[in-house]
Design brief:
It is built from seven helices and five strands. With about 260 residues, it is mostly helical. It has a domain of about 180 residues. Strands 2-1-5 form a three-stranded antiparallel β-sheet, covered by helices on one side. Strand 3 and strand 4 form a beta hairpin. The longest helix has about 45 residues. The chain is elongated, with a radius of gyration of 22 Å.
Length: about 260
């Protein structure tokens, strides 16, 4: 199977989304279980919820989500590269795994705290909206507490937000893993933006479909945004959240049709 094929990428992305959703929702269920609901009130609910959040556990969830998705997809990409250019010219999977772990560790050193805050804020906002609804309905303090307990313990509570999170983060893990996979190969390659076919497509991303740039250089979107690959989280969230795009690799060949090596 060709990892550059959009349909294969989409199928794998859905698979990794399901795996990562379990990581995220399990930890948020743990947070919800540990909330002191009897201390909830209409004014200071955020403080009560924050006391139940274990930042280290959330950091671990984020790291595991990236490594599980990126390592598995990287193995797939690595195997395809070996078939294309031969094992002698292809770095071992172990080298990729080490490089990707280093990439993720460095990324989380810079952005990990922000990721945890983002995850926590989405949960607080979700619970706050339930409390706000109770207040608008004129419920008393005790009625509000029971109402919140009932809503947040429903199986589908937080599902849509959790799915949005894992869709974005697994895409980042897959595309960054693909980028890392090619960095140490002997091949000279170009990158080609592949639109993901989302029903709610960004106009910029539709216009990028098929745009080709040398490996090591960023894609430049119509609005001037520079991204090393779709889902690159150095870009503004407006270009990243819920994106389903990927990129293909086109090995360059000489006039004889032979692969050009570095």
């Amino acid at each position: 199977m060709n990892p550059n094929d959009r349909r294969i990428f989409e199928r794998l992305h859905r698979h990794y989304e399901k795996r990562s959703y379990r990581y995220v929702i399990r930890e948020f269920r743990n947070i919800i279980k540990s909330i002191d609901f009897d201390s909830l009130d209409f004014e200071t609910s955020n403080v009560t919820i924050e006391k139940s959040v274990n930042n280290k556990n959330l950091e671990k969830v984020i790291y595991n989500m990236y490594m599980d998705t990126g390592s598995k997809f990287g193995r797939f990409v690595n195997a395809e590269l070996q078939r294309e250019i031969g094992k002698k010219q292809m770095p071992s999977y172990a080298l990729f795994s080490d490089k990707f772990a280093e990439f993720i560790s460095n990324y989380l050193q810079k952005e990990g705290a922000k990721k945890v805050v983002g995850l926590t804020d989405t949960l607080k906002d979700s619970i706050a909206s339930v409390i706000d609804k109770a207040q608008k309905e004129g419920k008393t303090q005790s009625q509000m507490v029971e109402f919140v307990k009932k809503v947040v313990n429903k199986p589908n509570f937080y599902r849509s937000r959790a799915l949005r999170i894992v869709r974005t983060e697994t895409l980042f893990a897959m595309n960054s893993a693909k980028q890392v996979s090619y960095q140490d190969t002997a091949l000279v390659v170009n990158k080609v933006w592949v639109h993901g076919g989302s029903a709610e497509a960004r106009v910029d991303h539709l216009q990028m479909d098929g745009v080709e740039v040398p490996d090591g250089e960023p894609f430049i979107l119509p609005d001037g945004t520079r991204m090393m690959y779709p889902g690159d989280q150095s870009a503004d969230a407006s270009q990243v959240v819920n994106c389903s795009c990927t990129f293909a690799i086109r090995p360059l060949r000489d006039s004889n049709g032979d692969l050009i090596l570095k």
